Amino acid sequence: MSETPHAVIALQISDMIRDIQQSPHADVDVDAILGELAESGVSYIPAAQHAGITIASRDGKLHTAAATSEYPILLDKFQQRAGDGPCLTAAWDQHVIKVDDVESEQRWPAYCRDTLDETPIRSIMAFQLYADQQTMGALNFYAERPYAFDAEAVEAGLIVATHAALAWNLLRRDEQFRSALATRDVIGQAKGMLMERFKIDAVQAFEVLKRLSQNSNTPLVDIAHEIVTADRASDVVDN
């Protein structure tokens, strides 16, 4: 008995998630995985011709994390310029946004005007991947004919977006893990330099870093980085 299309895409993305979980942290290629997620969506939803992943922050900055063609990148530029659009609305306010025909769409007039003037895109589906206090992510599908996405396409998009959100959360945790390791390493180096130079123990060295951070209202990791950088510069001059 053959598997349903929904089961096929679920298995494909589940395999991708398993690969992320099993790969060493340094071997995870975030850009490649996001690109695969976008490509998988286009291959799974027959009406979709283009796909992209949009990342935006509360300060209005917007970034196309993955795109299957130039159009998702261009459409994200229109959204940033206008300050709104279907992908941003899906990510911040609603989980799913569907545009049947850009030409007759009344929401986001500036975005729709630019889309009509500069692209062949007429139908859009956007799904929230995640949203927190600072940033959001959306998975977006585009077609060059109006009314391309019916109820079945929305259902398929929800399945892709749900599995993509799982993979995305794993990638974000991996990046946070690597950032934490880098932070720990630089603080450890700074502590070692203070211990050697001032003949103090690890607890005292950390207390020095903490007080410098508090007194200057500077993140502790930045204080540690300055100490390490200054020490290396001193070594270069001495040599």
Write structural notes for this entry.
By secondary structure, this protein is of the alpha+beta class. The chain folds into two domains: about 5-180, GAF domain (Beta-Lactamase), CATH 3.30.450.40; about 180-235, Arc Repressor Mutant, subunit A, CATH 1.10.10. The protein has eight helices and five strands; from the N terminus they run ααββααβαββααα. It has helices at about 5-20, 30-45, 70-80, 85-90, 110-120, 150-200, 200-215, 220-239; strands at about 50-55, 60-65, 95-100, 125-130, 135-145. A five-stranded antiparallel sheet has the order 2-1-5-4-3, sandwiched between helices. Strand 4 and strand 5 (about 135-145) form a beta hairpin. Helix 6 crosses helix 7. It is elongated and about 70 Å long. The relative contact order is 0.12.
Q: What distance lies between the first and last C-alpha atoms, to the nearest angstrom?
A: 73 Å
* Domain module count: 2
Q: Class of the largest domain in CATH?
A: Alpha Beta
| Average residue-wise pLDDT | 80
What is the total tally of β strands? 5
Q: Which secondary-structure class do the elements indicate?
A: alpha+beta
Which blocks of ≥5 consecutive residues have pLDDT under 50?
none
Strand order of the largest sheet: 2-1-5-4-3
Under CATH, the topology of the largest domain is which?
Beta-Lactamase
Number of helices in the DSSP assignment? 8
User: Which radius of gyration do the C-alpha atoms yield?
Assistant: 23 Å
Shape: elongated
CATH superfamily of the largest domain: GAF domain
Largest sheet: 5 strands, antiparallel
Amount of helix: 55-70%
